[in-house]
Amino acid sequence: MIALPLAASHEVGTKAQIVAVIVAGIFLGVVLELVRRRRLVERYALLWMLAAVAMLVLAVWRDGLTTLAHAVGVHSPPNALFLVALGVVFILLLHFSIATSRLSEETKILAQEVARLDAEARAAREASTNGGPAAEEAIGSEGRVAGSGSAGAEEPEHQGPIRS
Amino acid sequence: MAPNGPHLRKLAIVPAYNEQGMVGRVVREIERQAPGFDVLVVDDGSTDHTAAEADASGAIVLRHPFNTGIGGAMQSGFKYALRHGYDVAAQVDGDGQHKPAYLPDLLGKLQTTGDEADMVCGSRFRGDPGYKVPVGRRIGNLIFSIVLTAICRQRISDPTSGFRMTNRRGIELFARDYPHDYPEVEAILMLHAHRLRIHEVPVRMNARGFGRSSIDYPRSAYYMAKVLLALFVGLFRRRPTPVEATGEGELVEPPAHDAATSGGSAG
User: Fold this and answer.
1) Structure-derived torsion over alpha carbons of residues A119, A124, A130, A131, reported in degrees to the nearest 10
2) Are A35 and B180 in contact (CB < 8 Å)?
3) Chain B residues within an 8 Å CB radius of A35
4) pLDDT band at B212 (very low <50, low <70, confident <90, very high)
5) Number of folded domains that form chain B
6) d(CA B116, CA B21)
7) Is B166 part of a structural domain of the chain?
8) Looking at CA atoms only, how far is residue A137 from chain B in angstroms?
9) CA atoms lying within 13 Å on the CB side of residue A66
10) Rounded distance, CA B83 to CA B34, Å?
11) Strand B88-91 relative to strand B10-16: parallel, antiparallel, unpaired?
């Protein structure tokens, strides 16, 4: 039925509508599948689902786009659509930039913590193999183990976490 | 050592985020009301003196270098429990909402029901809640309650309650996989999907002791949407049953989920 050659512009619009609905539907399905496979956390899935639903609404409710266009003061509805879509994409990108910044900050903190723990663990291990009062001293000086006492002695067995 | 099950190793996990005024009291109250429990405070990246207060009160303290959310904090607790061979793990919130006096009740139910219960949840809605639950919370809770009751085919009256206790099977499951944020509701579904059994015990709770709830008004919409989405998707997720008889004190590697979760590193 859809494939029938239709002349009237209204019918062409209907065809485009159907395509838009299908695309939005597939998009929604893909997002849900990604969540199911744990590739995407719910937080971002909701964001994308919102976008898909907006797409659906604009596809089904054709006057909506015109109304929207007039509300924003744009004469051509397609231009209004591009404007809105561009705005949404900008906001999303900013959001992801913020998220990425936070992630890199957290990664840095993790690396620092791991490095500190590694230094403490090595010092404690060394102290316990050496035995004696030196062991207590090394374990006691929590947090500054690497810098204390015979720090130079532990240089050779450098077992940093970043070995390829 | 304790009146209930002296042979079991029991851990009370106390997730705390900026609760310096409350966490010490919670720890001491657990030690007084449920002396058989070791207390583990998970300081989820607090910027105040939560870790120091917890340490001073004699609890074991895990410090997260930054905030990971309640789900991350609880999973740290479950991983600790798994690694150190605990048989029972309970959640007692660090804000003082949960009354440690009910821990023996939860434990009793977990033990008397034996094989029939893998998790016992403290419910505010099987009796007197103990404080005036705000209407918005009641409604949200009711929606989740209806959904979960239908899915699990048993009455789940208080799915948002974090006051819970689980056995070794629950610990193994949650150490491997626990929801990120607002985890309580989804955790029930996970238990159900893994055929672990849930029981409820009526408890009273305190209104939040300090500060405000982590769920303020603008976030409730996200809360509802996130959890409902998680529940919906969760229904279609294949859930492997927990690995049995894992090495004592070993962290269990998660079995590969549906498709490639390991990013194709095996090429």
Assistant:
1) 160
2) no
3) 229, 233
4) low
5) 1
6) 38
7) yes
8) 22
9) 4
10) 22
11) parallel
Q: Are strands B119-123 and B164-166 parallel, antiparallel or unpaired?
A: antiparallel
**pLDDT at residue B83 tops 80:** yes
> A12 vs chain B: nearest CA distance in angstroms?
35
Shortest Cα distance, chain A CAs vs residue B74, angstroms: 18
What CATH number is given to the structural domain containing B121?
Answer: 3.90.550.10
Q: What single-letter DSSP state applies at residue B30? A: H
Give B201's contacts (C-beta < 8 A, 6+ positions apart): B102, B105, B106, B109, B120, B121, B122, B123, B126
Q: Is B54 contained in some domain?
A: yes
- At residue B69, the 3 state secondary structure works out as coil
Chain A positions in Cβ-Cβ contact with residue B257 (cut-off 8 Å): 37-38
The per-residue DSSP string of A103-138 comes to: HHHHHHHHHHHHHHHHHHHHHHHHHHHH-SHHHHHH
pTM of the model: 0.78
Residue B253 falls within a domain, yes or no?
A: no
Kindly report the length of chain A.
164
Range of the domain at B214: 10-235
Identify which of B149, B129, B127, B147 has the alpha carbon closest to the alpha carbon of residue B138. B129
Q: Is B165 helix (H, G, I), strand (E, B) or coil?
A: strand
Q: Which ranges of chain A have pLDDT less than 50? A: 1-9, 134-135, 138-164
Domain ranges of chain A: 1-60, 75-159
A contacts of B62 (beta carbons < 8 Å) = none
More confident position, B19 or B235: B19
Q: Evaluate whether residue B259 is within a structural domain.
A: no
Mutation target to probe the B interface, by most B beta carbons within 10 A, among A32, A33, A34, A36 is: A36
Contact B78, B2 (CB under 8 A): no
Among candidate residues B178, B173, B172, B192, the one with its CA nearest the CA of residue B235: B192
Six-digit token pair at A79?
Answer: 């231009």
- For the stretch B30-82, pLDDT in tens is 999 999 999 999 999 999 999 999 999 999 999 999 999 999 999 999 999 99
CA B50 distance to own-chain centroid: 20
Cβ distance B261 to B216 under 8 Å? no
Asked whether A119 and A138 are in contact (CB, 8 A), the reply is: no
Contact B180 A41 (CB under 8 A): yes
